[in-house]
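Private note to self, pasted from the team thread so I don't lose it. Backbone tokens:
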């Protein structure tokens, strides 16, 4: 392991689609890391145009998506809306 890099982390009130969060939490558990570390890693890879996961992990993600009924994909990313409270 390389030398640690000191960062300043902040608490956020981010909102996220429920099934996406369930898959992310399950994936973090599977990879034995925190949800925050997983999201940071995903973002840092994507910012460089890199895929953050290898084929076996992508296969596991597909399995988790089935478990949590997550049928969304990247084509839905700018079309998500929330139901108005009644």
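Design output:
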């Amino acid at each position: 392991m390389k030398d640690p890099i000191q960062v300043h982390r902040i608490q956020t009130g981010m909102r996220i689609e429920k099934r996406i969060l369930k898959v992310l939490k399950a994936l973090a558990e599977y990879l034995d890391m925190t949800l925050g570390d997983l999201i940071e890693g995903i973002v840092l890879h994507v910012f460089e145009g890199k895929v953050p996961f290898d084929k076996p992990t992508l296969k596991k993600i597909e399995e988790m998506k089935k478990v949590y009924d997550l049928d969304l994909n990247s084509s839905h990313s700018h079309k998500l809306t929330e139901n108005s409270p009644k």
